[in-house]
Amino acid sequence: MDDDLVFKALADGSRRLLLDRLHRKNGQTLSDLCQGLEMSRQAVAKHLVLLEEANLVAVQWSGREKLHFINPVPINEIAERWIVKFEQPRLRALSALKGALEKAKPPKN
Amino acid sequence: MDDDLVFKALADGSRRLLLDRLHRKNGQTLSDLCQGLEMSRQAVAKHLVLLEEANLVAVQWSGREKLHFINPVPINEIAERWIVKFEQPRLRALSALKGALEKAKPPKN
DNA sequence: TTGACATGCAACCAAATGGTTGCATATAAG
DNA sequence: CTTATATGCAACCATTTGGTTGCATGTCAA
Questions:
Q1: What's the pTM value of the predicted model, to 2 decimals?
Q2: CA distance B15 to chain A (A)
Q3: Structure confidence by residue, pLDDT tens digits, B56-66
Q4: pLDDT, tens digit, 9 for 90 and up, residues A3-61
Q5: Residue B92 three-state SS
Q6: CB nearest to A87's CB, from B72, B83, B100
Q7: Which residues on B lie below 8 Å from A21 (Cβ)?
Q8: Among B residues 65-104, those touching chain A with beta carbons less than 8 Å apart
Q9: Positive or negative, the Cα torsion across B8, B11, B15, B16?
């Protein structure tokens, strides 16, 4: 995975917005994603290309429609690496542990 | 916290390198951080300003020296928010749980 | 087949970005 | 005091970036 492409892709607010939209509703077409934005279709298309190149969205053609699907893996990989690198890993782990336990064993005692 | 400033600050490889260096050795001066880089001092200074504005590094003057300290909070906040947003929280929690358990109870069985 | 719809491609443009150089200022050291 | 060191400020420059418009291509529907 190319870190730099991911960071650069995430650096733009419009692209983060597109990821947001795909997160809310996956598999949207280019036209779908243009709705309500104050950008031309081509501007959106360019952003989507960058997101694809960063491997943050995957596409699938269906006839004349290009469906866009979010791929959370790169974000997660970066987050994992940067968290363990720059943060108190112990605190995070404990916090996650707490949450995991609460979910794994609901009302046990 | 201004998400956009943080994302934009992280978008540049030179700035991520500076964060790396501060992570390895905190509290370095501008001159320290310039050592071995193929950039002018002013270029480095500019990068550091952006990192400061994103609240990723804090500075403290000591005489004529400006000491730079890394601040991991913004990275962590963004990571937290984007993880829960775009990732399978359960998988992450379980993974963290596993690691936490391994650390918490070393060779128990 | 014809027309509407969905997308791609290319040229172009303004603004932001990352870098440089030159000079100024403040502090430490001899 | 003089000099060297550490940093800041401002102007300038080339490239990248985010956007536009115009036109081409491919697919579905009447």
A1: 0.85
A2: 12
A3: 999 999 999 99
A4: 999 999 999 999 999 999 999 999 999 999 999 999 999 999 999 999 999 999 999 99
A5: helix
A6: B72
A7: none
A8: 70, 72, 75-76, 79, 82-83, 85-88, 90, 92-94, 96-97, 99-101, 103-104
A9: positive
